[in-house]
Design brief:
The structure is a single chain. By secondary structure, the chain is mainly β. 0% of the residues lie in helices and 55% in strands. It contains no helices and eleven strands. The strands form two sheets. Strands 2, 4, 5, 6, 9, 10 and 11 form a seven-stranded mixed β-sheet that branches. Strands 1-3-8-7 form a four-stranded antiparallel β-sheet, with no helix packed on it. The termini are far apart. The relative contact order is 0.33.
C-alpha cells in the first residue's frame, strides 16, 4: 500500500484546510486509515481515524472542528480542518492499517497556522 498525502499549507487562525490521503496498491487490505500530527517538541498524537465501514474516531479536543471522511471510489481519505488554531500547526501524517496490524505511512504534510 502506498499513501500520498497532500493539502497542507499556511492559513490564518480561523481558516480551514482539507488534507487528502490517496492510497494505491493493495488497498483492499486496509481496514483503518487515519491521521497523526506532530509539532516540534511535542509528542505525536492521533488526530482521527476512519474504518473501511465508515466509523470515525477523533481526538477529543478536536471534535467539532475536524472531520474525517473517505471516497472509496477514489481510494482517498480526507481530513477537513476548520477553525484552525496556532496549536493545530504540525506535520500531519496519514497512515493505513490492515487487519494484521501492519501500518503503512504517507509522507508528512506541513500545516502552518498564523495568529
Amino acid at each position: 500500500v502506498q499513501l500520498q498525502a497532500s493539502g497542507g499549507g499556511s492559513v490564518q487562525a480561523g481558516g480551514s484546510l482539507r488534507l487528502s490521503c490517496a492510497a494505491s496498491g493493495s488497498t483492499f487490505s486496509i481496514n483503518v486509515t487515519g491521521w497523526y500530527r506532530q509539532a516540534p517538541g511535542k509528542q505525536r498524537e492521533l488526530v482521527a481515524t476512519i474504518t473501511s465501514g465508515g466509523s470515525t474516531k477523533y481526538l477529543d479536543s478536536l471534535k467539532g472542528r475536524f472531520a474525517i471522511s473517505r471516497d472509496n471510489a477514489k481510494n482517498t481519505v480526507y481530513l477537513q480542518m476548520n477553525s484552525l488554531k496556532p496549536d493545530d500547526a504540525a506535520v500531519y501524517y496519514c497512515y493505513s492499517e490492515n487487519p494484521l496490524g501492519s501500518k503503512f505511512w504517507g509522507q508528512g504534510t506541513q500545516v502552518t497556522v498564523s495568529s
